[in-house]
Automatic annotation (TrEMBL):
KW Coiled coil (keyword) present: no
UniProt protein name: methylmalonate-semialdehyde dehydrogenase (CoA acylating)
SUPFAM superfamilies from the UniProt entry: ALDH-like
Enzyme class, spelled out: oxidoreductase
Source organism: Saccharothrix ecbatanensis
UniProt-listed Gene3D superfamilies: Aldehyde Dehydrogenase, Chain A, domain 1, Aldehyde Dehydrogenase, Chain A, domain 2
Record EC number: 1.2.1.27
Residue span(s) of domain Aldehyde dehydrogenase: 23-484
Domain of life: Bacteria
One biological process term in Gene Ontology: thymine catabolic process
Keyword NAD in record: yes
InterPro entries the UniProt entry points to: Ald_DH/histidinol_DH, Ald_DH_C, Ald_DH_CS_CYS, Ald_DH_N, Aldehyde_DH_dom, MeMal-semiAld_DH
An MF annotation (GO) of this entry: methylmalonate-semialdehyde dehydrogenase (acylating, NAD) activity
Amino acid sequence: MSSGRNAPGRITHWIGGKPWNGDSARSGDVYDPATGQVASRVDFADVSTVDEAVAGARAAFTSWRNASLAQRSTVMFAFRELLNARKGELTAIVTAEHGKVLSDAAGEVQRALEAVEFACGIPHLLKGGFSENASTRVDVYSMLQPLGVVGVISPFNFPAMVPLWFVPNAIACGNAVVLKPSEKDPSAANFIAELFAEAGLPDGVLNVVHGDKVAVDRILEHPDVKAVSFVGSTPIARYVYETGTRHGKRVQALGGAKNHMVVLPDADLDLAADAAVSAGFGSAGERCMAISVVVAVDPVGDELVSKIVDRIQKLHVGDGRRPGCEMGPLVTGAHRDRVLSYVDNGQSEGASLIVDGRSHTIDGNLEGFWLGPTLFDHVGADMSIYRDEIFGPVLSVLRVATYDDALDVVNANQYGNGTAIFTNDGGAARRFQNEVEVGMVGVNVPIPVPVAYYSFGGWKDSLFGDSHAYGTEGVHFFTRTKVVTSRWLDPSHGGVNLGFPQNT
Ligand code: NAD
């Protein structure tokens, strides 16, 4: 398998069931973040390339929408088997381009598999309702039909899982897909497309176009794209939602986050410190469900911070392919520099820099895009390190006096993706889950990413649109309902009647 590279060092689009064979006017660098070297270049689609993918998808849709549910499930089961057999290859691709350590990439692929397994059972969720004799000898029934061509636009931080949150459900519901993955780590999407082809998916049902704003804008404006699923940062999510809906599309746009972990005085502080470090620095903090703020309720602050510091100092940071590494580099040099600028900001804004990640020992090539785990204490809600999504290994500790103060902090934040409470008090946890204005809540669980048969989505500026991702909300997003009212001809019903139909 070529992993989409039809020439050494070049990653191109996947259109109509094969690598694109055109010449691209524009392209971008893809790095190995652990060495800082350019590993390959990825083609950037222009408008005509996106149009080619959409036209192919539209043609494929006309027969795929009528493929039997059994045929679609057969493809999905075959894809699941292939992905499971070859998950090691996909894991390696993710680590090579994203930088997250192999064990973390393997976790991403495993969660992606869960989403595929959910899609294998979608026929059960595509059943409509049936009411016999809604009126005398009149039956009413509903059916769920696919939308047509749908666009999926994904971020860099989960190059395998996020595309697979959407693509299997969209396809299993009978749609054709144009996927535009992140240009920073594009190869996982091609690998997925090739596996789908091997699983028997007809050509054109899944296409991958690589690129930047040009490709995204064309997907948002193209009249034959009926819906768009987007995941990325909040400013772009808002833009995608507004632009896509203005062009008449159904849009779900998942945005950024600032996830708080509230630690109450009765919590087990060892468990809380383990969780804060795992969820704060796993994947170098480049997770939309990463914990970026610990809200320590008096009097736990000093003891909790000291336990977090002990754990940070033992973290093994380095090339994710090396044994034992727990945290890898940031995805690009530009992103690393942006995260570094927040370390400067935090100091100048008056927060206490307790652990400076710039001096952490690195097990790898020093040209990589490194920043070690960094901890600020006594952070204020007015500081930029608190307000902004940093998306790196920078953890802030805010200290508050009471549970109510902690709740106020979380609810005043513009984001509402994930949150967690650490406590041994069931009543406090129940109160929190009821009162907190956040879409996904963990009780002594720091990264509460819902399983595939629930749905994933934040509140407030973490999601634009009505539908959360995957699960039953995903099926709802990728289908539309038709209701049929049916009567088989009977002479007793003859005669003209201009009155509004009544049920008798
Ligand atoms: P990003 O917003 O920069 O990019 C996301 C996608 O949008 C990419 O495919 C990119 O090519 C495209 N894009 C970028 N700039 C654009 C522009 N100006 N116009 C049109 N398209 C554009 O996000 P990222 O840096 O790749 O990913 C990290 C962000 O994603 C973080 O904010 C993170 O919180 C968020 N995220 C959210 C979730 C969630 O479920 N809510 C999940 C993962 C990541």
